[in-house]
């Protein structure tokens, strides 16, 4: 199912304090690869996960990584950034 998201900007909610937003480049049974991604540790800010994602949706993505390899087993949910409600 993740193959349908290749080329889309997606949000990966992790089972930790991290949220990743970037362009889905590829994936297999073990990893997902995001390009031009923002890796955000919520412990570094006073914002919530929902507010952080809404801000990216409204103001745009500012990548801090060119390429990120993410273990699939740590992903709680995946959604398109375009599916975020304003």
Task: Quickly describe the structure.
With 86 residues, this protein is mainly β. The protein has one helix spanning 49-59; strands spanning 9-14, 18-27, 31-41, 65-71, 75-80.
Write the layout of secondary structure elements.
Elements: E1 9-14, E2 18-27, E3 31-41, H1 49-59, E4 65-71, E5 75-80
Antiparallel strand pairs: 1-2, 1-5, 2-3, 3-4
Highest CATH level, the class: Mainly Beta
Neighbour order of strands in the largest sheet: 4-3-2-1-5
CATH architecture: Roll
Name the poorly predicted regions.
Answer: none
Helix percent reads 10-25%
Number of strands: 5
Could you say what the CATH topology is called? SH3 type barrels
How would a textbook summarize the main sheet?
A: 5 strands, antiparallel
Q: Radius of gyration, rounded?
A: 12 Å
Average predicted confidence as pLDDT: 93
| Element order: H for helix, E for strand | EEEHEE
Count of the separate structural domains: 1
Q: Helix segment count?
A: 1
Percent of residues in beta strands? over 45%
First CA to last CA: what distance?
25 Å
Described by the principal axes of the CA atoms, the overall outline is globular
SS-based structural class? mainly beta
């Amino acid at each position: 199912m993740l193959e349908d998201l290749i080329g889309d900007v997606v949000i990966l909610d992790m089972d930790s304090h991290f949220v990743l937003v970037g362009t889905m480049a590829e994936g297999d049974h073990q990893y997902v690869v995001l390009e031009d991604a923002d890796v955000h540790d919520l412990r570094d800010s006073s914002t919530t996960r929902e507010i952080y994602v809404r801000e990216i949706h409204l103001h745009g993505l500012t990548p801090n990584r060119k390429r990120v390899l993410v273990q699939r087993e740590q992903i709680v949910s995946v959604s398109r950034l375009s599916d975020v409600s304003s």
